[in-house]
Amino acid sequence: MPAPIVIAVDGPAxxxxxSVCRGVAQQMGxxxxxxxxxxxxxxxxxxxxxxxxxxxxxxxxxLPSVVITSDTDPAAPAxxxxxxxxxxxxxxxxxxxxxxxxxAIPEVRLAMVALQRAEVSRxxxxxxxxxxxxxxxxSVVLPDASVxxxxxxxxxxxxxxxxxxxxxxxxxxxxxxxxARDALDAGRKVSPMTRAEDAVEIDTTALTLxxxxxxxxxxxxxxxxxxxEMSS
Length: 232
Ligand code: DC
Fold this sequence. Notes:
Blueprint: E1 6-10, H1 17-28, E2 31-34, H2 35-48, H3 56-62, E3 68-71, E4 78-81, E5 84-85, H4 93-103, H5 106-125, E6 130-134, H6 137-141, E7 147-152, H7 155-164, H8 171-187, E8 200-203, H9 209-223
Parallel strand pairs: 1-6, 1-7, 2-6, 7-8
Antiparallel strand pairs: 3-4, 4-5
Bound molecules: 2'-deoxycytidine-5'-monophosphate (DC).
Residues 13, 35-36, 39-40, 99-100, 103, 134-137, 181, 185 line the site of 2'-deoxycytidine-5'-monophosphate.
């Protein structure tokens, strides 16, 4: 019996990570962990406490009172803050604008990485594999992951995808916001967004969602020494 598989998927906003990871997890019978949602939940906690996300001391002081839990079912993933389902609230514009500042704080990252590893260990101890998406999963959180993928796409296509998910959003404004967030996420001192050396890069610009899911599944199976026909 092979050990349960761990798939690390990193990449910038709008590269298709969430939909692809959920699709891969559902197709391969795995769990799914969205680590971006955890940083978003921490950011929501800061905003709900009326604290300044740019004030690292204030954010650090909140950490011990914040409880973040994840439901890792790929058909209905959820993020809970102090027991409340905040899956919709964490997608709001205010959280999105502040999340890069909060996620750059080293103590926040330490706490989230510990939670992420605990979630993966729990799933594996149940004998089930997991797909984990984020910015530093292959490089820092799970350097021993069985398979690592880095998803990319042209900035304009990423902006179009994100804008189409948000009522009234303009592509040009969304693109400027995405590029600003990418610069912060890739430029921060602690565990910046990066492609792990042993990650396979997939450019999703010209691919449909099912095509990317298929490409990732095929890569996973070939990395495990099986042909992709065996998945169907
Ligand atoms: O994937 P997302 O857009 O929901 O992520 C929100 C933010 O969280 C992103 O701008 C950077 C941060 N993040 C991170 O620093 N490390 C991760 N592993 C995942 C997300």
